Amino acid sequence: MIHTADEQTALAALEERIKTLLPNTYQECYEEVQPVSMGSAKLKYGPDGKVAWNEIWGSFCDLAMAGGPPHKGTLLEPGTAEAIEAEPEKYGDAAEEICRGLRLVTSLAAEVSERLGWARLTCEDEKMAAWLLRAIPMENVSARAEGRDLLLPVGPAYRVEKEIKNVITSTAKTCHYWVEHTWPAQARAIGALFDTMAETLPLVEPGAGGEAERMALGARIGALTGLKATAHGYRGWLGVECPTVAAAVWMMRALVASNVLARREGTALFVPIHAGTDPGGGIVAGRVAQIYGFAARLGRV
User: Fold this and answer.
1) 34: burial class by Cβ within 10 Å (0-12, 13-18, 19+)?
2) Which of 167, 200, 233 finishes a domain?
3) CATH number at residue 289
4) Fewer CB under 10 Å: which end of the chain, C or N?
5) pTM of the predicted structure, to 2 decimals
6) Is 39's pLDDT higher than 80?
């Protein structure tokens, strides 16, 4: 249980931020959501022989943010500059198909970004882009945000039935919950929360940092919590093993509500490495330790 008045206040504030971030449909029931998949939708094709992306889904699994299953089991990363330069035509074809699919499923503008490895989706406003920046990585698909623009991954090895579908599906799913299940007042509250957190809890997302930064962050988290780093890592991400899937889900959601991007693969919780925003990993390690402490006292780990 929580022992001090300060801890109770901090936990209450965290729980309020979690509720604010979740679409209205989850406000009172997210603790009951289970990470169970509905299965993969089959591709449908139009008369022109192209995938009819806007006709594939009748419904979506629960959001990973709310405790539902992430869309992918492992992280989908953008193609590297070397891979893109080696196969520019394949890259261009994949990027154009992703943009076509994004336009069909969101009715928003989408184009190939000038940044190699990314497609650009222009959202209704900055708060929508900021919310999707948090929701889509929890589906294990990479994302970046630049104002109203959301950047989504592209690579020359992306296949229509696999990686291209992954990008389009995860975006369709999260946009659906934002547009259809987040009321205007809730969207305004989310925007206000992002503004408030920016002043006191700077956003940490995956960025610059190599093996040295990964090892340093893993050591700091291990010293504070006893959680062990996973053997497998990704560019900009460190994985730590949680006792259970439920613990990983709770900590992931709590971290995002503390302005640290997070995601999970099974029981592994992945947190960002960013040598510029968080040199030495002190911000991320401190927030992981606080949230792990809350989880332990609440009997979640």
Assistant:
1) exposed
2) 200
3) 3.90.1150.10
4) N
5) 0.95
6) no
